[in-house]
From TrEMBL:
UniProt xrefs under Pfam families: Methyltransf_25
Domain Methyltransferase: 67-158
Keywords linked to the UniProt accession: Methyltransferase, Transferase, Ubiquinone
Organism of origin: BD1-7 clade bacterium
Protein name as it appears in the record: Ubiquinone biosynthesis O-methyltransferase
EC numbers on record: 2.1.1.222
Cited InterPro entries: Methyltransf_25, SAM-dependent_MTases_sf
Keyword Transferase appears in the UniProt entry: yes
Record's keyword annotation contains Hydrolase: no
A single GO molecular function term of this UniProt record: 2-polyprenyl-6-hydroxyphenol methylase activity
One of the GO biological process terms: methylation
Encoding gene, per UniProt annotation: ubiG_1
Enzyme class: transferase
């Protein structure tokens, strides 16, 4: 049972059946007062994560999927995946993100694991324990494109069969999508979200099974 204050409901987004805390939520504010300030854009829940949920609602993962959510941020995608029955690990390079991830797990009453690591450091031996790689809003700097491409390449050569990367359509994402189309027959789907707000997102999909 969550101990998160119900009076804070107005600071919770409920979309796709998963709860996301807003930055104004009292428990988020408490973390900030304790100096836990994310510094690599993990300062809120980013809406691209809903594009992966939207797609997987129509094309569900296999039962018992093990998913690595890279650049997981506050963990709303991870919580949604856990609610679908997946075994989920969220990885993020920001040392403060684990506390926000734990809040999201608590408010959604799900079990999911957090690992403090970075795209560059996730080795093939770890990737071989997953069958799905997911990431939302992670390709936001030009220098991240080769890093994420290389992560996808390592994942696919170590037994991961499905990759989903969602984005609002930034240039580094399109560059990643072009490279993945060439190398792994990746495709890009346009996802028109109606919740939590109307917006267009783009989803790189690689199915290697
Ligand atoms: C824009 S936020 C998106 C967070 C989350 N996926 C979402 O949709 O709400 C980008 C996240 O990627 C993480 N990140 C940035 N560079 C990273 C790296 N090299 N390795 C792992 N995580 C990284 C940040 O700490 C941040 O949480």
């Amino acid at each position: 049972m969550s101990r998160i204050r119900q009076s804070q409901d107005k600071h919770i987004i409920d979309a796709y059946g998963v709860k996301a805390l807003k930055a104004a939520h009292a428990d988020v504010q408490k973390l900030k007062r304790r100096g836990k300030l994310p510094t690599i854009h993990g300062n809120k829940v980013w809406a691209s994560c809903y594009a992966i949920m939207d797609y997987l609602q129509s094309y569900p993962l296999a039962e018992n999927s093990r998913v690595l959510d890279v650049g997981c941020g506050w963990g709303v995608l991870a919580a949604w995946l856990a609610k679908q029955g997946a075994d989920v690990v969220g990885v993020d390079a920001d040392r403060h993100i684990g506390d926000y991830f734990a809040l999201t797990a608590e408010i959604n009453d799900v079990e999911m694991q957090f690992e403090h690591s970075s795209f560059e450091k996730i080795m093939g031996s770890e990737l071989s324990t997953f069958n799905v790689l997911a990431g939302s809003d992670i390709c936001f700097w030009d220098e991240l494109t080769p890093v994420i491409f290389s992560l996808i390449e390592r994942a696919l050569s170590n037994g991961v069969t499905r990759v989903y990367i969602a984005d609002p359509g930034r240039p580094p994402f399109w560059s990643l999508a072009d490279q993945c189309a060439e190398a792994f027959y990746g495709t890009v789907e346009t996802i028109e979200l109606t919740e939590p707000r109307k917006s267009s997102k783009y989803l790189l999909v690689i199915h290697d099974d």
